[in-house]
């Protein structure tokens, strides 16, 4: 009730002020009323009206430091920084030890890129203010703007050591530590910080971000989980908890976190995409498709969910529709090798063999280190009866990936199918040395029982000799 009354009172004062200005009638207000009017306009981002109110207030209270500071803030907001500095000079002459003057002047100098002057002003304020953490925070931001991240980190740590609840300083410290790649130091800092303030959801959140960057997903999940236990409506923590679960292949937990995020802050394209990804990883392709389509409707240039829709359609054997979505994704991002490989598979499934071959070639040009492209491309050529070309394609793949056993096994299969038994046995030996367990892929390639038995004998002989 009190809050509503205050709001109505402020509006009444503003309305009265505007009537006097409009009618050009004389009026008198208390200084507190002027402050309310100026602050009201500032919150509404009506800075020209705020300046008019400042000028009216100044005419009635020419020696008020508070009014002069509000006027300087308003002028700075209107990009009239030199005028703002002149007003602050007048204010300093009237009251030399007012810390707000130095803080505001430091902020203006920082905006103007006059960083040394900004530092000088903030340092003047340190001994005059009660909340020293705010001054250290601002000093940290100046050094951050100067890209002197080590000094920035020092000042931000000072700010936090004085006030462990300074969340803005925590955010900025996390940024500086990240950009300087001081992750281990960051973990030590946040661990110590949490020892002092175990109920800081932001500290747990930042710790979780660091663990993700270090690929320590279990620790990240614990940290994010603490953050949301402390602050249940912390949407970013729920979102990142879901992302960590997703990376850790805990798909149902990921879905729970993403749905909680959506309940707090509403839907979003990225959120829909991640929900779709979780569903497709538990083979719920119909639901995954639905969420991919929701994501792409919210952002038509977001190619990942468009591709994801094609992927789900492929898994549902709806290949003609998959071709459509893969084409849409490729129109937005033509440099994605996976998209081209998926397009090639879809074209193959619907009988567009020439397009499929072209798509495989494009995929290999963009990423020659994806062994699956060489295997799939060569198999299409093999099926067309050109075994020699299939062999050449695998050999091209091996030039890039000589240690990939799957390529050696596939080369073995093509050599044997082409009657090149000596080359086949040599290739098989290489494959078995690289990865013995993958030999099942070779056995599956040949449907003839006779061939399978012959290969099995060779493989068993190799196994016994290398026990």
What does this structure look like?
The chain is mainly α and 467 residues long. It has a domain at 368-467: Tetratricopeptide repeat domain (Serine Threonine Protein Phosphatase 5, Tetratricopeptide repeat, Alpha Horseshoe). Helices cover 79% and strands 0% of the residues. It has 27 helices and no strands. α4 runs antiparallel to α5 (81-94), α15 (251-265) packs antiparallel against α16 (269-281) and α20 packs parallel to α22. The longest helix has 22 residues, at 2-23. The radius of gyration is 33 Å and the shape is elongated. It starts with a helix and ends with a helix. Mean pLDDT is 91; it is low at 1-10.
Note the main attributes of this structure:
467 residues, mainly alpha, Serine Threonine Protein Phosphatase 5, Tetratricopeptide repeat, 79% helix, 0% strand, elongated, disordered N terminus
- Largest sheet features: none
CATH architecture of the domain at 368-467: Alpha Horseshoe
Instruction: Output mean pLDDT.
Output: 91
Strand content: under 5%
- Quote the distance from N terminus to C terminus: 83 Å
Helix/strand structural class: mainly alpha
Tell me the name of the CATH homologous superfamily of the domain at 368-467: Tetratricopeptide repeat domain
Q: Count the DSSP helices.
A: 27
Question: Looking at CATH, which topology of the domain at 368-467 would you report?
Answer: Serine Threonine Protein Phosphatase 5, Tetratricopeptide repeat
- Highest CATH level, the class of the domain at 368-467: Mainly Alpha
**Topology pattern, helix = H, strand = E:** HHHHHHHHHHHHHHHHHHHHHHHHHHH
Radius of gyration based on Cα positions = 33 Å
* Uncertain stretches: 1-10
User: Got a strand count?
Assistant: 0
